[in-house]
Amino acid sequence: MRISLNWLKKYVSVPVSNEDLIRLIGARLVEVEGVIDESAKYNNIYVAKVVSAEKIPDTHLTLCQIYVGDKEIDKVEKNEAGLVQVVCGAPNVHIGMLAAWIAPGAIVPVSVHEDAPFVIGKRKMLNKYDSFGMLAGADELDFGGDHSGIVEINPSEAQPGDLLSDVFELNDLILEIENKSLTHRPDCFGIIGFAREVAGILGEKFDEPEFLTEEKVFPKGFFAKWGNGIRAKKSELTVNIANPEICPRYSCAVIKVVEPTAEDKYLSEMKILLAKSGMQSVSKIVDITNYLMLLTGQPLHAFDYDKFLAVGGSEKPIVNVRLAYGGETIELLDGKEIVCVPSDILITSNDVPVAMAGAMGGKNTEIDESTNNVLLESASFSLFNLRKTQMEHGIFSEAITRFTKGVPAGGTFNVLAEAIKEINGKPLDACDAFVGWKKPQEVVVSVSEINALLGTDYSKKLIIETLSNVGFDIESSGDVLTVWAKVWRTDIHIKEDIIEEVGRLLGYDNIEPTLPRHATAEKNRMLELKSHIREIMKEYGANEVLTYSFVSERLLKKAGLDANNSYKIVNSISPDLQYVRQTIVPSLLEKAYLNQKLPVDKFAIFEVNKVYQKCWGMDDENVPVERMQMGFVVAERKTTGDAYYKAKFFAEKMLEELNIKVKFLPLRSLAADALPFENKRAAEIWTLDDQYVGVVGEFKNSVRRNFKLAEYLAGFELGVDLINQLAGIRAVKSDFEVKDQIDETVTTDKKYAEVLAEVSGKYPNAVITPVSIYQPEGASKKNITFHIEKY
Amino acid sequence: MNELESLKKELKDLNAQYAQIRDIAPEERGKFGRELNARKMAILEKIRVAEEAALDVAVEPLDVTAPCGVNEPLPTTYSVFQGSRHPLMTELDRVVSIYQMMGFDVVESRQLDDEFHMFDSLNFAKEHPARDGYDTFRTEEGLIPPAHTSTMQHRVLKMYRDKLAQGGEIAVVVPGRVYRNEDVDATHEHTFYQCEGVYVSRDCTMGDMLGILREFFEKYYEQKLNIRTQPGYFPFTEPSLEFLIEKPKALGGKKGDYLEMLGCGMIHPNVLKMAGIDPNEYHGFAWGGGIDRLVMLRYGLMDVRHFESGDLRFLREIK
Predict the structure, then answer these.
(1) A364, A558, A724, B224: least buried by Cβ within 10 Å?
(2) Are A580 and B112 in contact (CB < 8 Å)?
């Protein structure tokens, strides 16, 4: 949302500098994302009177002499009559008009924020006519897209030679507001609501515009009671609201449109304010509805009343507010044909859709130049339904932005009345139907509760003053305050809401930071273990990586895993991130490829993170079982040999460091962690008391080929939850007593583990480490050498 | 004939059938071609699988219990100089240890959670537009890879609420990985780390919250800092704030150069109530902020994408 400071200041007096004001708004109301400085945007643009205008034959151009006041202007040559010559291409240029003249050297405003702003100088047109500067259209002045001609200025508002920025107060700062931080504050989506907060922040009582609290447009006795609401006496209007949940209040009026006046063609403040707020001028009536929306936060919609009747085919107007039937279609004002879903709210004429409520009007009732009567709507709709409509159909209009914040039902009628006044139309008929609207409830809070939660020492007087400045009604009895919010505050329900108002308006930054008492924190074993693992692996020259928790179906397939065992993301950013990963290793293989390609010749990478598999089911809280796993991959280019032993060495050494003794058994598992590994060259890792720790080994040739990795490649995947249970402090060895080396000669098919077991039997309580496995060429036996340390 | 050979023969026969297309009426040719192609693709896939299987069959087994291959040297690890910890994890440890010094227990966040913990238990009304602000991913089952570590708030409140009855306070931080459905660029990642904080006692104040946060950031950046706040909106806190620090001088900050570090606020009474804590007796505050940005600032990194790149040039450089 954009907020013009000049516009804001029409509703609140600001005794501080703009800089301070913006800082205070940021600190006490809403995040200001950016400030657009328009203070120099309209420099050297003057009001000029067209004194003569001669058509240049065979062109669309007009040669004009203009009067720009008597002051000397840089780079401009005036003729002896004091006039400046300028060639103009607009069809509407005519003698006597006041136009906006961009002097030579001035930047064309629409280009001011571009990398190379456009500057008009002195030009030679058609090789013979000198032309100084330019007469500007609304688009060049950045007042909207209208390119049909140059702007015309009302002579009762300006004199030739006036600076355009003085006439229309263009020296402005525009605040860009982060809408998200006002999600709960529909009242702040209008200049008045915003100004009310600014007054409160500055410690001033806000001066409420009268029309918000008192309606004076309809003649006395115009209305009679009707259902829960009112409608004009002898009214022909019927408003049916199918369900109070979708529309608590619907106010509408039929207005006879007044004939266009001569004034309508002039550049108006309203058009400029629309442009500053990022909206386009469309037509007089639509502009007024948009202007009032920007002012009050209440969106309005105007239907062509005669079309409305014709579309519905009823003699008398029947407005229905109801949910769409699934599959119902409507063509919107932007020309898009929408197929409705059952959560969309429709406005219908005798059950024929004429608008998607809160989102956009229908093409079939669009107002145009021949419109004689309008049906003007000011209503409140369910933010929940409109949120769905917004998401379903991708409609992001200014109106729906406000409706999805929950436009208060309390204000619809008064804004409708103000619109009628602005249009200067005559109300023929009107109706204010409400079914579900509740007035804000009272909230009770004590001064001590406020101070206790904020950590402040604010007086009762200051608190009452602060709250009443922004419109709260307060009764106090001793320490206790009873607070009533105005109808536009739909967000005030509990005492914390009031405490927030006090803390915020008086400035959270004025609260003294203090420290509460605290006890001693508990250790978190898992975090410490992970940190320890990182330290160990770093010592071993391995590199910790982080990879995404989401993987592609392709990646799972490449690693030999079944995607059906992965939770599938339905709204993933891309197919690359569609599945929740089941294990860590496949992601590491992908990163291994990237690094081998760089190339990095030798590396070991690892990651410790959480993984999920569908086959693990749900835990006690009915959320998926999660496990902490460690993946590891070692890869070398230009190396031959059995990479298995390298990975095993890393795993065994790390586990030893964590005081966990393991054994390596043939790989039989078909669990996801084992699938990428080659059974004949990989092992399951078990603790000595038979708990499954994980898997280590080389990968299937197919897997290695799928990842395009060099031959020397292995890895492991370990369950860190179990390691966390088992990990302990490794005993520090005392001085050794005996050191020995022994050789065992065995048949080639005898497993190392069997030999080791035999040696261990011979040397109980000794630390036995391998030295080598040697098999002379042509020999049928191998020789295993052990190093023995006895303590 | 083995399976692979018979598949290859089948493919050859099938290829021969393409010639028949000339004998087929023009309007039938499309259908014929499509059917033929579908069959061909199926056979090619079978051949791929068979070839892969053949590749995996021709593998020499090894003694998985041995420390090394026969006649091969014993394996070694790599040089410590080439090793590295991930900077995010190192800093996350540092963040956590500062909070631990300040008396906060640590609970790690989940990486796959449900609607209840992500939204319902945090006072988000059903279908409320505020839920859209989090750009959440969802699984087919409706599970959510959490978009904020606040997904753990309800759990830690329940987990520690007995401490309140014993006259103590709840003080917990929750580090974890979170996810948002947004496009990745130099300053945005769909995957990042956050740290949540929760404090509940009989008499804590917003002043205490501001004090703890200032203390944390001063410890983290090892210098005195100016702090600032701005109002925010979160359904689970009331009041809600954004917390800013003046960019530390040592890191190139200028006066008045404020950075949004996290969102925070006094825990909404409904959130306490849902966790079985009486909001009339206790109140609390909570906060949550990104770790990645903290670390980028500290290390002077310009591109958040480095973190999950797995690029060893970066990781070995920045250890």
Answers:
(1) B224
(2) yes
CA of B182 vs chain A CAs: smallest distance (Å): 7
| Structural tokens at position A487 | 């109808």
How many structural domains is chain A composed of? 6
A770 and A691 fall within a common domain: no
Does residue A734 carry a pLDDT above 80? Answer: no
Interface contact flag, A541 B82, Cβ < 8 Å: yes
Contact B86 A545 (CB under 8 A): yes
* Domain presence at residue A317: yes
Picking from A29, A531, A591, the nearest residue to B310 by CB comes out as A591
Q: What is the pLDDT of residues A327-377, one digit of tens each?
A: 899 999 999 999 999 999 999 999 999 999 999 999 999 999 899 999 999
Question: Closest Cα partner for A108 from A36, A38, A42, A35?
Answer: A42
Judge if A652 and A701 occupy the same domain. yes
Sheet arrangement for strand B170-179: B105-106, B170-179, B191-201, B283-290, B258-267, B237-246, B227-231
Q: Are A215 and A419 in contact (CB under 8 A)?
A: no
Tell if the CB–CB gap between B269 and A29 is shorter than 8 Å. Answer: no
Chain B residue with Cα closest to A538: B83
Minimal Cβ distance to B311: which of A391, A497, A594:
A594
Inter-chain contact A667–B64, Cβ cutoff 8 Å? yes
Q: Which residue of B has its CA nearest to A493?
A: B238
Look up the CATH number of the domain holding residue A110: 2.40.50.140
> Furthest-apart CA pair in chain B: how many Å?
91
Residue A334 lies in domain: 223-434
Q: How far is B112 from chain A (nearest CA, A)?
A: 7
CA–CA dist A200, A629 (Å, integer): 54
Query: Residues with Cβ < 8 Å from A57, sequence gap 6 or more?
Result: none
For chain A, the straight-line distance linking the first and the last C-alpha, in angstroms and rounded, comes to 77
Q: Do A604 and B78 touch (CB under 8 A)?
A: yes
In this prediction the pTM is: 0.86
Comparing C-alpha atoms, which of B216, B222, B187 is closest to residue B301?
Answer: B187
What are A216-261's pLDDT values in tens digits? 899 989 999 998 899 999 899 999 999 989 999 999 999 998 888 8
Task: Classify the phi-psi angles of A694: left when phi > 0, otherwise alpha if psi is within -120 to 50, otherwise beta.
Answer: left
